[in-house]
Amino acid sequence: MVSYEKHLFACYNMIVQRHVGEAQGTNKVTMSLVELQAVRRLQSNLSKTVLKSDDLFQKMAFFWTGLFVIGVCLEVTRYYNGKASDPDFDDPNELLQLFVNLMNFFMLFISLSIFGAKLTETAHACTMLVHRMINHAPTEENLELFSQAHLLVAQMNKPEIAMSGWNFFTFSRNFILTIGGALISYILLIIQMAPSKVKDVTVASDIKIMASLYNATASTVLNNITTRSGTW
């Protein structure tokens, strides 16, 4: 559905681009009043469709994004906690399972976010084109036409046409990069905080050496005590 709405906005942008191209080098708007009113109705209907879709799916998109972030964090934490607590946990199957689970999370999130971001970008792609189309001095003959064109610009800006997550965020490329960067930072932090095997082996060997020294010292002391007791 989001892809279909993006296609409709792309067709709308093509109509505006054609009229902007025809107006290049002239000092008048090539679109007639009837055509401009039709474009306004088309833009209004498309905007209502997108906003209605956003009302239907924004809660689902918000909770899915939250589950994606929590799922990635829990999956990475589970793997490194298991790796630190169980020596047999670090095998290729566990690493493969972690990779597959993360890829599933990321693919579903990226597909949802990219469709939403592309729809948002396409809906606002021709705003500057409309400004260029009406960037001429109005005359008495086309005063009503310019009024309709300025109304078109106003309705393109408000309300904002975008796919959101319960109005907490808007799907865009910046949003995707922000979420991705935050998760990568979390993963790197978990990797740095996870105890390494070399460190564990060193600590274990130090404990064994200290235990051996303690046992040897205790044995020597007991032998000395026994010897002195026999002498007495």
UniProtKB/TrEMBL annotation:
Molecular functions per Gene Ontology: signaling receptor activity
GO process terms (BP): detection of stimulus; sensory perception of taste
Pfam families, alphabetized: 7tm_7
Location(s), subcellular: Cell membrane
Transmembrane segment boundaries: 61-80, 95-115, 175-194
Keyword 4Fe-4S belongs to the record: no
Superkingdom as given in the UniProt entry: Eukaryota
GO CC terms in record: plasma membrane
Membrane topology annotation: Multi-pass membrane protein
Keywords: Cell membrane, Membrane, Receptor, Transmembrane, Transmembrane helix
Main localisation: membrane
Keyword Transmembrane helix: yes
Range of residues in the leader sequence: none
InterPro entries: 7TM_chemorcpt
PANTHER family per record: GUSTATORY RECEPTOR (PTHR21421), GUSTATORY RECEPTOR 5A FOR TREHALOSE-RELATED (PTHR21421:SF29)
Protein name: Uncharacterized protein
Lineage: Eukaryota, Metazoa, Ecdysozoa, Arthropoda, Chelicerata
